[in-house]
């Protein structure tokens, strides 16, 4: 199964991204990352911006087993997942599954490119 996932950090983000990518590479040979972007935190009080990226990976693991692996990596990199407030605190790394990707996803009409006829008129 191929999954779309996210990676985020606001504690030493470059260091933790590098380490997380190293561990993630052990889960899949087919791993592709977007460019990294800086974002402002949402839903938490902090002055530390986040570094975020999307990635896809192919794996035979179920979504539940993959999330367990992501949690294990987060803990290896210093995230305290036992803290009930961990979702609103600064974090060295956050790895989430956004959803499965299919080989031929149905693209909504509004995202499809405009088609033009041979005279260059939009249809």
TrEMBL record:
Keywords: ATP-binding, Folate biosynthesis, Kinase, Nucleotide-binding, Transferase. The keyword Phosphoprotein does not apply. It comes from Idiomarina aquatica. This is 2-amino-4-hydroxy-6-hydroxymethyldihydropteridine pyrophosphokinase. Catalyzes the transfer of pyrophosphate from adenosine triphosphate (ATP) to 6-hydroxymethyl-7,8-dihydropterin, an enzymatic step in folate biosynthesis pathway. The keyword Nucleotide-binding applies. SUPFAM superfamilies: 6-hydroxymethyl-7,8-dihydropterin pyrophosphokinase, HPPK. Belongs to the HPPK family. GO terms for biological process: folic acid biosynthetic process. Residues 5-98 form the 7,8-dihydro-6-hydroxymethylpterin-pyrophosphokinase domain. Pathway: Cofactor biosynthesis; tetrahydrofolate biosynthesis; 2-amino-4-hydroxy-6-hydroxymethyl-7,8-dihydropteridine diphosphate from 7,8-dihydroneopterin triphosphate: step 4/4. InterPro entries: Hppk (IPR000550), Hppk_sf (IPR035907). Residues 113-123 have a biased composition (Polar residues). GO terms for molecular function: 2-amino-4-hydroxy-6-hydroxymethyldihydropteridine diphosphokinase activity; ATP binding; kinase activity.
